[in-house]
Amino acid sequence: MASGEVILHTKGLGKYFHQPVSFKVLDDISFEAYRGEFLTLVGKSGSGKSTLLYCLSTMDTTYEGELFIAGEKITGKKADDLAALRNSSIGFVFQFHYLLPEFTCLKNVMIPALKLGKYHYREIEERAYAKLEALGLKDQALKQTSKLSGGQQQRVSIARALINDPAIIMCDEPTGNLDSKNTGIVFDMFMQIAHDSGQTIIAVTHDNDFAQASDRTIELADGKIISHDKIFGSSDFRPR
Amino acid sequence: MKKSVNIDIAVTHIITRKKQTAVAALGVTIGVAIYLFMNSLSSGFTKFSRDEIFKNNAHIKIYKDNEICEPIMASAADCTAIIINPQITTRSNKIINPEALLASVKGLPFVVNALAQVSFDAFYNRGKAQLRGNGSGVSMVEYDAMFYIGKYMVGGSVAALQGNLNGIIIGSGIADKLSLGMGDNITVSSSYGVVKIMKIVGIFKTGSSLNDNSKSYVNVSAAQQFVLQGPSYISAIFLNTPDPDQSGKFAAQLQQLTPYKVEDWKTTNADVLAADKTRGAMMTAISFSILLVASFGIYNILSATISQKINDIAILKATGFSGKDVIRIFMYEAVMMGCIGTIAGLLFGGVLIGIMSKVYMGGPVGYFPIRFELPLFMGSMLLGLLITCCAGFFPARKAAAVDPVEIFRK
């Protein structure tokens, strides 16, 4: 594993919750995530796995310790810089799709790219079409998001997470709201993204099958890492 | 690119929530319309009452004021001044060497036109009927240039008095009461006992009964005869300045040049102006409150939108929109609602003004004194937009402070 390129790592990450009583929810978390890795975070409810993900996401900045993305120290950056970083380098998939209901699927996918402003509108539109096509949703592109099924909505939100070709895709229970068929589709998609495009996926899940099928699983309990388990053999993990 | 996506989102919100947008905009529409209408009304009234003042008052008047007699013994350090029965002096109110003063006043850069006047108490007689009033001896052409009396002439003309020492222009009330018409003779006597038979060469009707029932105009020399004075006697000099609002300043300058009393129209008409000011303040306060209430519509609707869209705001922030972007999105929405409302309000207010200006009030007022005034339109527009921006800013700031983690963890 040491052979892979580290895309994200933490040094002694800790976090307290102060409501209702002071409580250490994360304690001295240090780990690395590699380029092209499909990493899952598991643990019982209250183990701190979601809290850890939101610290990694740069949206939660009230932690101690340090967070690095692509070798750059993220801890202590300004909120606007963090927003720009999320825009360009991190994609998000949540348990609920969080699509904007007023917009078409296509527009939902395009919005982060329009915000990034790297390409012209036409190009962004083409890229969004391509992403939706890859996820089997091309014919739904111009529909309002509310007209789609749950599985389709989640796939649209994955397309949105991918539109800016982020180095890291963070997922919080991405299949928590899906049936087994759609879970399978989403899982295969993640595998493909990680292994073919070299993008890192960090997913919080309580679905053991989902976790076991991923490249590596980090298990948390009471705010501490209790195992860096690697389910598959190192031959299966192909860091770029 | 960055800007356009914020606008894009704001426009989509506005379009997909037509009803809320319409309600918010309608509030602003009514607010701006009423603000514009009431201020136009107030401005029209003020203009009207000023015109009324300037019918009879010049911007600045120079006259010899009554003097209180000096103490018999001058006040010294150790003794009290003795004044026995202080009263105004009996010296006449004439201005010495008025031609020189008038000429020097006319030469001043800020004097548009100046006019000498001899006023006297007049009694208009026909047979046994007698009316009391007052006469003015003026150069009628110059008087017309200053007070536009020609506008109110119902018979004859101002020019007819020029060089006609026996001519008189009288108010329509006097003519009616004494049953006199153009070309008739009228017997005029003064408080000094001078009696003259004069020929009516003009009749005016200003709409003010005070004027129409008492006022008459004769030549300066005729007036001087009425008060038993020589050709150097003048009771007052009137002058107009380019800007009536600046008259106080000019009056102060003039006071440096002459020992006589210099009074600007604001001092003379302080009561009318105070009433105008009070009305203006009241109108502004009422209309501003209405506009303020209207702005709460935008505040409420934007607040409700933000509460409903809290998930959307969270995902926007997660996907890289900064707090500033979120503020911009909602500010654009507020400004769009405000623009729609303000433009509609200006149109609506304009229609109200248009209708009101066609309402005939009768009497000396004529049509309702309200006009389209561009500065008021501009002011209402700016204020409408400013208030919607303020009303939008607070909810927008609340939206910017949304913590996405809190939303996603629910």
Structural summary, described in words:
The complex is a heterodimer of chains A (240) and B (410). Chain A is an alpha/beta fold. Chain A has 7 helices and 11 strands. A 6-stranded mixed beta sheet of chain A has the order 7-8-9-4-10-11. In chain A, β8 (168-172), α6 (180-197) and β9 form a beta-alpha-beta unit. Chain A is globular and about 50 Å long. The N and C termini of chain A lie close together (11 Å). In chain B, the strands form 2 sheets. Chain B has a 6-stranded mixed beta barrel. In chain B, strands 11-12 form a two-stranded antiparallel sheet. Chain B is elongated and about 105 Å long. Chain B is of the alpha+beta class and 410 residues long. The relative contact order of chain B is 0.18. Chain B folds into 2 domains: 2-53 and 272-408, no CATH class; 91-265, no CATH class. Chain B is built from 14 helices and 12 strands. In chain B, a hairpin with a 2-residue loop joins β2 (113-126) and β3. At the A-B interface, α2 and α3 of A face α1, α11, α12 and α14 of B.
Summarize the structure.
The complex is a heterodimer of chains A (240) and B (410). With 240 residues, chain A is α/β, with parallel strands linked by helices. Chain A is 34% helix and 25% strand.
Topology:
The complex is a heterodimer of chains A (240) and B (410).
Chain A: E1 6-17, E2 23-29, E3 32-34, E4 38-43, H1 49-56, E5 64-69, E6 72-73, H2 79-89, E7 90-93, H3 105-116, H4 121-134, H5 150-162, E8 168-172, H6 180-197, E9 200-204, H7 208-213, E10 216-221, E11 224-227
Parallel strand pairs in A: 4-9, 4-10, 7-8, 8-9
Antiparallel strand pairs in A: 1-2, 1-3, 1-5, 5-6, 10-11
Chain B: H1 2-16, H2 18-56, E1 60-63, H3 98-106, E2 113-126, E3 129-137, H4 140-147, E4 153-156, E5 167-171, H5 172-177, E6 185-190, E7 195-204, H6 209-212, E8 215-218, H7 220-226, E9 236-240, H8 247-257, E10 261-264, H9 265-268, H10 270-308, H11 310-318, H12 323-357, E11 360-362, E12 366-367, H13 374-400, H14 404-408
Parallel strand pairs in B: 3-8, 5-7
Antiparallel strand pairs in B: 1-9, 1-10, 2-3, 2-6, 2-9, 4-7, 5-8, 6-7, 11-12
